[in-house]
Design goal:
With 410 residues, the chain is of the alpha/beta class. The chain has two domains: 147 residues, Lyase, Ornithine Decarboxylase, Chain A, domain 1 (Beta Barrel), CATH 2.40.37; 240 residues, TIM Barrel, CATH 3.20.20. It is built from twelve helices and 20 strands. The strands form three sheets. Strands 3, 13, 14, 15, 16, 17, 18, 19 and 20 form a nine-stranded mixed beta sheet that branches. An eight-stranded parallel barrel has the order 4-5-6-7-8-10-11-12, surrounded by six helices. Strands 1-2 form a two-stranded antiparallel sheet. Helix 2 runs parallel beside helix 3. It starts with a strand and ends in an 8-residue tail after the last helix. The protein binds pyridoxal-5'-phosphate. The site of pyridoxal-5'-phosphate (PLP) has 16 residues, from helix 10.
Length: 410
């Protein structure tokens, strides 16, 4: 969204204020052109030809969005059996889906086998039982390379204390299990965290997996996960995917030559593909001056965008209605009955009740982490596609809130 002649406009000249009038607030709006640009950018960054990008649909699993990524040629990264089901509904072939759960029960794995998707195992006990029921179903192994990566402790998942993956130090044990049960390991995987700043972290992780890969002669693919950082502010650091593509393509080719076969190189970005495409628009319900602070209060809260409260994420916040008014310093808060702060001491054009306030970078983990806390319905979702705005999820109602409840006689 950009300022054009002192007015915020979305791609194709679409007016966000009109969308808010038509669909109400709070409202999530996504731009398909930005998603496609990001998808093309990451695929173009790698010269290695056997590259496969799996969209991590946990970031935004609206069926229409998943169908877009399918249309552009992506596969899918799923972390629950329900994401797998959604992926199949969106038209992905089972073989294009990698199922990477964490602490899922055996029943979920059985279901995934039935559905025919690729399976990623991240715990030795699960591997030890694999041969009993699914000996002939090949697996991928999620390795924890013990790298401290990621922008916040809640999104750093490759370190020594992390619950994710099979420790690289347990490789001898894994090999004994694989050998004794005659399992077929077709993939190795790692995902060390989100918002990784330095390309070298990926390269170090890759080297660890390449070393491990030599012990598994039947590999088809190596999946280096995700963690690409996107910029949240002007001049913010972002993962240099072009540099990564250049350096990693060369290393991967060398590895494949030594391995004796060209494997598929996989990544599974979520944020990189959809973060920038999304906005959350909310209405200012009140401007409140206290003895120390001026608050902009909104008709939304951490029930709809939890990232700032959950892991301190930064979202640029603007006054969409009056972008040219003199900026003032505001703390922007939500309407939830707990501390619910989106941003402290932000320079925002002077706002009054009724103004529409816009949040950037709301495409990934925005709607998806939304809840009905305080019994408020979740927002509608609109997709800008081919120059038009399409409602792709209606706003919830109070009826939706009680739809799954069963009243008992009293
Ligand atoms: C296994 C796995 N793959 C991919 C992703 C996507 O990460 P990001 O949104 O940082 O690209 C995640 C995020 O948590 C993940 O857990």
């Amino acid at each position: 969204m950009e300022l054009v002649n002192n007015k915020y406009l979305l791609n194709g000249g679409i007016d966000p204020l009109e969308l808010c009038r038509e669909y109400g607030t709070p409202l999530y709006v996504y731009d398909a052109a930005v998603m496609e640009r990001q998808y093309r950018r990451i695929t173009a960054a790698f010269s290695y030809p056997k590259l496969r990008i799996h969209y991590a649909c946990k970031a935004l699993s609206n069926l229409t969005v998943m169908r877009l990524f399918k249309k552009w040629g992506a596969g899918l990264d799923c972390v629950s059996i329900q994401e797998v089901q959604l992926g199949l509904m969106a038209g992905f072939q089972p073989d294009d889906i990698l199922y990477t759960p964490n602490f899922a029960g055996a029943d979920e794995f059985d279901e995934a086998v039935k559905l025919g998707v690729k399976i990623n195992i991240d715990a030795i006990p699960m591997l030890e039982n694999w041969g009993l029921h699914h000996k002939n179903v090949p697996v991928c192994l999620r390795i924890n390379p013990h790298l401290m990566a990621g922008g916040h402790e809640n999104i750093s998942v490759g370190h020594i204390d992390s619950k994710f993956g099979i420790s690289i130090h347990q490789l001898p044990h894994v090999l004994r299990v694989v050998e004794s049960q005659g399992l077929r390991v077709e993939g190795l995987h790692m995902h060390t965290g989100s918002d990784i700043l330095d390309v070298d972290i990926f390269l170090r992780g890759a080297d660890i997996l390449f070393e491990a890969a030599r012990k598994f002669p039947e590999l088809q693919y190596i999946d280096l996960g995700s963690g690409f950082k996107v910029p949240y502010k002007p001049d913010d650091i972002e993962t240099d995917v072009e540099e990564l593509g250049e350096k990693l393509s060369a290393r991967f080719e060398t590895f494949c030559r030594e391995y004796g076969r060209d494997l598929t190189l996989m990544f599974e970005p979520g944020k990189f593909l959809v973060s920038e495409s999304g906005y959350l628009f909310a209405r200012c319900t009140l401007v409140k001056q206290t003895t120390s602070t001026v608050f902009i209060g909104l008709d939304t809260g951490f029930n709809h965008l939890i990232r700032p409260m959950f892991y301190g994420s930064y979202h640029k916040i603007v006054n969409v209605t009056e972008p040219t008014f003199k900026p003032r310093i505001y703390t922007v808060v939500g309407n939830i009955c707990e501390t619910d702060t989106f941003g402290i001491d932000r320079r925002i054009a002077e706002a009054v009740e009724g103004d529409i306030i816009g949040f950037y970078n709301a495409g990934a983990y925005g709607w998806m982490m939304a809840s009905n806390y305080n019994s408020r319905p979740r927002p509608a979702e609109v997709l800008l596609y081919n120059g038009k705005a399409h409602l792709i999820r209606r706003r919830e109602t109070v009826e939706d809130l009680v739809g799954t409840q069963i009243q008992i006689k009293m």
